[in-house]
Predict the structure.
Amino acid sequence: MPALRPMRHRLRLRLAAAALVGGVLLAGCQVQPWVKPYEREHLADPIMSFDRNPISSSYLEHVFEVREGSRGASGSVGGGCGCN
Amino acid sequence: MRQSSWRMRWIPAIAFALIAVVQADVLPDDRSDVLYHHFEGGGITVQGPSVLIRKKVGDAVSFSYQYYLDMISSASIDVVSQASPYKEHRTQQNVGVDFLHNNTLYSAGYISSIEPDYNSKTAFLNISQSLFGDLTTINFGYTQGSDAVGRVDKGVVQPFRADADRKNYAVGLSQVLTRNMLLGLNFEVDSSAGYLHSPYRSVRYVDPTVLRGYSYQPERYPDTRTSNAASLQLKYYLPLHSALDGSYRFFGDTWGIRASTYQVGYTQSLWNHWTLDGSVRYYTQTHADFYSDLFPYANAQNFLARDRELAQFHSRTFEVGASYEFHPGWPHFIEKGSLNLDVERMFIDYEDFRDVLDTQYKAGQEPLYTLEATVGQFFISFWY
């Protein structure tokens, strides 16, 4: 009997994952954009970019990483240089 | 280990399912940047150039290359108290490619960092997909790195070699909330193993047999470190062509460090050509479990650290920047350019790292160390 519990647990997790995948696929077909393309003028402005100048933001990220014990979750692509 | 391995198999499956919801993504703009950076503070000066070039080939592929040089002159409190000032160069080169295929953006790249006593090689892969009418962008990233640690003594490379490996998993989401508001969420797991400390750095312990009251011994770190970081960022478009942004990041790792980063920024466009930026950043962290400014005796515990990067401290950083956009007219393939200047003032107040250079105090009673630094960047950008 105890052997069935891990099997049921795996099955439940697989069903949950399948439901998540299916839900996303269906949602992508049915969700209507609540901000229409002609309403996105402000969002397209360069000042609304999260990273307007990658060469500058990557340098500042390096400055802070070298002096602090934390790193990551900045949204930049790539995991840093690993330099000391 | 068995349970976590099969969970990991589902992560790429879910990722690719999300990617199957077909929406458009775009390649980054063609641009080049030439930057000069300068850091000064705490007895350290680091300066040098950086160049970033990005160019599309056809409609589906974009290549990028970045060169970065640090010219370091260091007489920091650690260097002066335990060794002697030094100068060295660190060179970093990044190459990357972005590939747009079936509305999915694949990014891959390689980073090489070389300095006399530390070589680092990093490779990364990122997949980005827009969903729900381009209102949502989700990305998954994987990074793997390999570091070779050496030692240089009085300019001579020593026969010392140790290795460290890194793996990083990242998930990010960018969401349009309203016609004026964007949300960014990021989560990263970072795992390092191997030689994770410095062959030069030492810790100090109480030693009544010497006049100054303490002696030094080499630091000892655990050979593994796993960390989690999560951030939230909001950007809001304001009237009069301006924007307000705020962010919060939390960090925690297996070394016991807990850190929070708070940042608020403001951007203002003026007279069609100027863009002004200002921001305030507040950072706070707790010390690592095995950190101490002064251990009670030699070999007081299995792991020992006195690196101020692992100490308990808080910092404030104030930033102002200005950018001027222009249209050069020649050469004709350049659409526009910008001149940019950015200056930051950083103030770090350590709460358990003391200034050992102030020798008028008994060991352990020296004043807490503070650091003030100025960071400057000047760069010119071209779009073509």
In short: DSSP finds two helices and 20 strands in chain B. Confidence is low (pLDDT under 50) at residues 1-24 of chain B. Residues 2-20 of chain B form the longest helix (19 residues).
